[in-house]
Design goal:
The structure holds two protein chains of two kinds. Chain A folds into two domains: about 150 residues, no CATH class; about 70 residues, no CATH class. In chain A, about 70% of the residues lie in helices and about 5% in strands. Chain A has 13 helices and two strands, in the order αααααααββαααααα. By secondary structure, chain B is an alpha/beta fold. In chain B, helix 4 crosses helix 5, helix 4 runs parallel beside helix 6 and helix 6 runs parallel beside helix 7. The relative contact order of chain B is 0.17. Classes of the chains: A mainly alpha, B alpha/beta. At the A-B interface, helix 1 and helix 11 of A face helix 2, strand 6 and helix 4 of B.
């Protein structure tokens, strides 16, 4: 199977993960979206040297991985290309910020190293939270949630159709890639001379298919507004989930729990 | 009832695809539309559904003129099964795909769910309900595509080569299913035991329109229009067509 085919399978696996049944999956999509955004905003807002304060925020993704049944290794596997990029963000901090802030034994740790680790943690935590949101929430439910808070219909429909278009595009890449390599044995990738026609054909083919799909939708009554089968009301359990998590996030943001524990022990 | 009145169409000025075509299909009738590649079969379907506008003539569906302002009403009456089921099934699961049309046509969620169950039960497809579209076989996809159309309660069903690329067993299942449907059916294919009437198209015009056994045994006309007798009439002993 070619890389596009594998990518397509991974994409579909995300749909299947989101369709699992667990206490986290059953929470209303809008509530999960709000909790995730709050989490990310608060994680990002930690001071660059507040390593210990930030560390406790790992509880949210760990708890959710455990409760939802989404394997944590799947998260790191699917984010394998993005995580190194996120980690690169603070990689030069140790060079520019050399002032020693902490001593561990006889080893002095500079502010640059701490801020680098903090930045990496912020990135990884935010990615994990985003991954948990999309792996426990179906895209339709998410879009239905966005419509509930009066997000413009066009924007939401565009998001949904773009998501669907990714599958169409990937499918076409997989088919074309197979067709190419069957007539170009031993070649790695597509030869640069064929890039133009390959991309042009890909665009035309995927547009044709997208057009067919759109026709199919129109012929079944689609008039610009999606009516989501997953649309449901926000219940008491959803509200409790929201209050508890947001409360915990703010508590952790303003109270350095790990620092307090450390002070009590030492 | 579908009425095609003197329809002409061309994608560009020099090459007309349809030249003044007229025919009527009555309620409950099952009609096959056949012809060589490029004869205009798909174009007829698209004009009927309002996806293409004719350059001349008019189409009436149940007395309603197919035009921009009536598209919603017309499409509510016509269910179209695409040739490629992958283009028809765009939601993750069969259930969600089947819910799509009823919800668009303002059924409540409960009504839509009941309709989906009713259709799946009538087609003996309950086992497909929560399956992922990308995990079912080609034959199952075709059946699911038909089910998605039936869930919108159309008065007529148009099908673009519904049995292409199916193995014999799946082909038979699909044909039996089509035969059970009470609606008006227009099928782009030569399904002998489904269509009671066949329209033969060639070069943008109708060259034969009549009972299936009459049109499909007319070797001369078929061959003059790049078609051939069904295999079972070509001297294969023991095969019965009609």
């Amino acid at each position: 199977m070619n890389k596009a085919g594998k990518a397509l399978i991974e994409l579909r696996q995300m749909d299947e993960l989101a369709d699992m049944e667990s206490p986290v999956h059953s929470i209303h999509a809008l509530i999960k979206l709000i909790v995730t955004i709050t989490y990310i905003v608060l994680v990002v807002s930690f001071h660059k040297y507040d390593f210990t304060g930030l560390l406790i925020m790992v509880i949210y993704p760990l708890f959710l991985f455990n409760l939802s049944g989404v394997p944590i290794k799947t998260c790191f596997y699917k984010l394998r290309l993005i995580i190194p990029l996120v980690c690169m963000v603070g990689v030069f901090n140790p060079i520019f910020d050399r002032e020693v802030l902490v001593h561990v034994g006889n080893v002095g740790i500079s502010g640059g190293v701490i801020s680098m680790i903090t930045l990496m943690m912020k990135g990884v935590f935010s990615l994990m939270a985003s991954f948990l949101l999309i792996s426990t929430t179906k895209i339709d439910a998410l879009c239905a949630g966005l419509r509930m808070v009066k997000c413009p219909s066009m924007l939401v429909t565009l998001t949904l159709l773009t998501y669907r278009y990714i599958s169409v595009l990937t499918e076409e890449v997989a088919i074309m890639s197979d067709a190419y390599h069957l007539r170009a044995p031993g070649q790695k990738g597509v030869h640069y001379k064929a890039w133009g026609s390959f991309l042009g054909q890909l665009l035309l083919r995927s547009m044709d298919r997208a057009d067919e799909l759109y026709n199919s939708m129109q012929l079944r009554g689609f008039a610009g507004e999606f009516y989501y089968a997953d649309r449901k009301r926000i219940g008491v359990k959803d509200i409790i989930y929201l209050i508890v998590w947001v409360g915990i996030f703010f508590f952790f943001r303003y109270v350095n729990v790990i620092g307090l524990i450390g002070n009590m022990i030492f | 009832m579908i009425e095609f009145k003197n329809i002409s169409f061309s994608y560009d000025k020099d090459t007309p695809v349809l030249k003044g075509i007229s025919f009527t299909i009555n309620d409950g009738e099952s009609v096959g539309l056949i012809g060589a590649n490029g004869a205009g079969k798909s174009t007829i379907m698209k004009i009927m559904l309002g996806l293409l506008a004719p350059s001349e003539g008019e189409v009436l569906v149940d007395g309603v003129l197919v035009e921009k302002t009536s598209l919603s009403d017309v499409r509510r009456k016509l269910g179209f099964v695409l040739q490629d089921s992958d283009n028809q099934l765009f939601m993750p699961t069969v259930f969600e795909d089947m819910m799509f049309a009823p919800l668009n046509y303002k059924m409540t969620k409960e009504e839509a769910e009941n309709k989906v169950d009713e259709v799946l039960e009538s087609l003996d497809l309950m086992y497909l309900k929560n399956r992922y579209n990308h995990r079912i076989s080609g034959g199952e996809k075709r059946m699911a595509a038909i089910a998605t159309i039936l869930a919108m309660e159309p008065e007529a069903i148009l099908m673009d080569e519904p049995t292409t690329a199916l193995d014999p067993v799946n082909r038979r299942i699909v044909i039996n299913t089509i035969n059970k449907l009470p609606q008006l059916k227009l099928i782009l294919d030569m399904i002998l035991d489904t269509c009671e009437r066949v329209i033969l198209l060639s070069k943008g015009g109708i060259v034969a329109d009549g009972r299936t056994e009459d049109v499909l045994t007319d070797k001369e006309t078929l061959e003059a229009n790049r078609m051939e007798l069904p295999l079972c009439l070509q001297g294969y002993k023991g095969k019965v067509c009609f």
